[in-house]
Write a structure and sequence with these properties.
By secondary structure, the protein is an all-alpha fold. Helix content is about 65%, strand content about 0%.
């Protein structure tokens, strides 16, 4: 999930970002610069590896879909 963040920077820096990075790529650029300083690298790598493991994802989806029938709305 993405969150919107408003920051203030010098107008020369802003112009440089537009010129070098491109208008629609600034958020991604800043996130990639900041991420190593605020995210646990091992945790981030673990999530990345999990996202790449298609077999585990398929098994998880199968398990989730298999348990949907266990929910009984009448008991509420």
């Amino acid at each position: 999930m993405n969150k919107k963040l408003t920051i203030s920077i010098d107008e020369d820096v802003y112009a440089g970002l537009h010129q070098r990075i491109g208008r629609r790529r600034i958020s991604h650029f800043i996130e990639m610069l900041v991420r190593p300083h605020v995210i646990d690298k091992e945790l981030d790598q673990g999530y990345r590896e999990l996202a790449e493991d298609e077999q585990d994802a398929a098994e998880a989806l199968e398990w989730i879909e298999g348990t949907l029938g266990d929910v009984n709305d009448d008991e509420r």
